[in-house]
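We examine the record.
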Amino acid sequence: MVKRSRRVELKAGETGDNVAIPIPVVDRGRGGLRNSVGVIVGRDLNDMYRIAVKSDV
């Protein structure tokens, strides 16, 4: 039997990491993407991230 971990440990993102930003259902069209891809460009003391995307989102 395969042992499965019950808890996933997430590490804090670092500058330069790629992230997927979920787009809510009400904000996308029928054929719209579920996620937008961005890059972390900064993080403040409260762990709030500044994310850059290529398009106007």
